[in-house]
Structure formats: C-alpha cells, structure tokens
Design goal:
mainly beta; ten-stranded antiparallel barrel; about 60% strand; elongated; disordered N terminus
Length: about 350
Amino acid sequence: MHRILLAGLALGLSTAAHGPQLDITLRSDAPISEADLENELNSAIGSLLKADAQDQLSTSMAEAAAISLKGMGVDYASNIKKFEVGGSVGSGAHEAGFSFKKGGDVLPKGGFAAQLTLMAGINLGIGDNEKEHGIFDGVKLYVNGMSMKLPSGREFGGSMNNIGGHLQVKVIPGINAKVTEWGGIDLTSGYERTEYTLALRQPIPVTAPIDDGSLSWDASGAYDIRTLSQSVPVELSTNLRVLVATVYVGGAFDYNLADSASQASLSGPLSATINGTINNQRIGTASLDFAGEGAALQQGGRFFGGLQANILLLKVYGHVNVGLNGGVARHLGARIAL
C-alpha cells in the first residue's frame, strides 16, 4: 500500500480541516503503472469531488445559505390590513452568477442552498378599526419556518430547516388612489436561521482516462457539507401598485453568522479497461479522506426587488436578492392576504 497526497489549497482554518489523503491498494498483477494511476485519479478526484478546494467550497456554501432565505418570510408588496398566510420556494447561490440550480455536476459549481418555507403575517393595528390611525397601525409581524429532506435522484441530496421572525414598520405612510397605490417606505428587521446539508446518498462513479483505456473508481461512504446561517437583516423598501400588478424594490444591510464544514470518508473498488487486454477488471481498492471549513462575511449589503400579481385575495410573486459579496438568491411564492 502506498499513500498519495493530493496537491491542493492550504487548509488552515482549523485543526479539523485537512488536505485530501488517498490510499490505494493495487493487485500485484495490476496491468497499469503506478505513475499513470496517481496522475489520472488525482486529477479526476480534484475535478469531480472538489477534494483539493474544500475551504473554498465551504465558504461559498456559507455565503449561499446566508442569502438564500432573505425575503421569504416577509411581504414587501401587499400592504396587508389584517393578516396573510403563504409559502415560497427558492435557492441561493455564490460564485455561480445568476445560476440558481445545482447544475449537472456531482457538486454545485459554487455555493448552493435550496429553501422552502411557510409564512404568516399579521397587522398589529387590526384592533384599531375605530380609529383612522391606531398606535400599531402600519406595524406588521411575520413568522416563517419549515424543515424537510429535499427529494433528489442524484448522488448528493439536500435537507434544510429554517425559522424566522420579522417586524415591519411603515416609517412613511403610503398613498392609495384606488387604481394605483404607493406603499410608502417600510423598515423591516428580524432574525433568520437556516441549516442546509448536502450529503452523499448514493455511490459516485469516478472515471479517468489512461493509456489505451480508462480507470474507474466506485466511491461510496460519507461526504457531507453542513451549513448553519444566522442573520439579522435591516431593510428599507417601497412598492407601487398599478391595477393588479405591484413592483417593489429595496436595500438592506445584513449581519450574518454563517459557517460551513465538509467531511468525507470514501472507499471502493478500482477497475480498469484497456483496449484489447482487459474489460472492467478489478485491479485494487482506494479510499479517500478530507475535510474543510469556511465562513461567510459577517457584514454585507444587498439589493432586492420583485413583481407581484394581485388576483383578489391571492398574491403570486417573484423575488430576487443581489448581494454585494457575489451572492444571489431568488424565490417564487403565493399568499392569501386580507
């Protein structure tokens, strides 16, 4: 047995993070040279599993989780008079541009976090009907939450749980002209917490070319990327309704505590196919261990906006966040608002 240390980034965030370590056991009659095996398998593992860039991936996962839940538990468009209930689904990404999907690779191109949440909101001035402007008029309280394992037919699958609470205060009253309505200026703040885990659910076939053939490694075991984000946003927003369509925009300052850690322990058989000699013949075994850690920036700015269709009590909308640190997020949702 011999040990191959893959070249990679220096993992210096904590003593728990360590570089990739690959152990290979070859049969004595393996029809492949050690040099070919090392070079090609190292390259395939680094590209497919991102084994040599775990700190970078963990940092991006933390950034994606930090922005993924933004706006899902708050209504910026409806100017509710009594209460509302609804839900939304979306995702956050980092270092992947405006690509909100995990993509066709085994792991996401950059950081990724999927979210689904249910929400409810109430206007705290609902009891001031006898007054034109009660003490709590224009003050709204929102809560949201959800926990579930996300369906996936891929090698990696996600699970998430989130919870949040927000208070929204109308600091400048709006103007309602029936056909059109300006919603004034809203100040929103609160607390958001989300956990997102990306975990290996089925073996990963790792393949690499060799002289006159190919090498394959069926890697199975544990490979988890666990992310926890807690955030306090401070947001200013406004909205404008024309007939049944409402557009809203806003800006925010976010204080985030978001960390991500990865841990992998994989093993499986090595097989080779060489033209005219052998066909998918087992030549040995391999095992791989690595870990990494990363954290999002604690402070950051963000712009957001959305468009909502108002169909009587039903509100259907789309929302986009753009962070100044390279994170983006979007979600689609529907609400019943009174």
